[in-house]
């Protein structure tokens, strides 16, 4: 005869569970810039990717309305939607932290 496991279970803290928070760009929009402002300098790899995206004309600004910007960026592994809203970039890529796609759009918008 087996004895059922009666050990107490600890409930999960769901307040920090990002998988349950809806993202404005949908399921693919949980990436890099979800609420991230550019305050830290990019890594060398990110800088090189930004230059590559700009040099190969893979950044396409689709809408500028006042302070809001929408863009499509053809990345190395897919096409991503990047938006500038309320002083923050939001990107649909899966990166964690500021990504090259948003930085490339920022470089175009700043010029």
Q: What is the average of the pLDDT values?
A: 75
Characterize the biggest β-sheet.
Answer: 4 strands, antiparallel
Shape: globular
Proportion of residues in β-strands: 15-25%
What spatial order of strands do you see in the largest sheet? 1-2-3-4
State the helical fraction: 10-25%
Q: Got a strand count?
A: 4
Helix-strand makeup class: alpha+beta
Tally of individual helices: 2
Can you walk me through this structure?
The protein has helices at 44-55, 100-110, and strands spanning 59-65, 68-74, 79-85, 88-91. The protein has 111 residues and is of the alpha+beta class. The protein has one domain (27-110). A four-stranded antiparallel sheet has the order 1-2-3-4, with helices on one face. Helix 1 (44-55) packs across helix 2. The longest helix is centred in the middle third of the chain and has 12 residues, at 44-55. The termini are far apart.
Task: Supply the key terms.
single chain; 111 residues; alpha+beta; 4-stranded antiparallel beta sheet; 2 helices
Present the secondary structure layout:
Layout: H1 44-55, E1 59-65, E2 68-74, E3 79-85, E4 88-91, H2 100-110
Antiparallel strand pairs: 1-2, 2-3, 3-4
Helix pairs in contact: 1-2
Brief rundown of the structure:
The chain is an alpha+beta fold. The protein has 2 helices and 4 strands; from the N terminus they run αββββα. Helix 1 (44-55) packs across helix 2 (100-110).
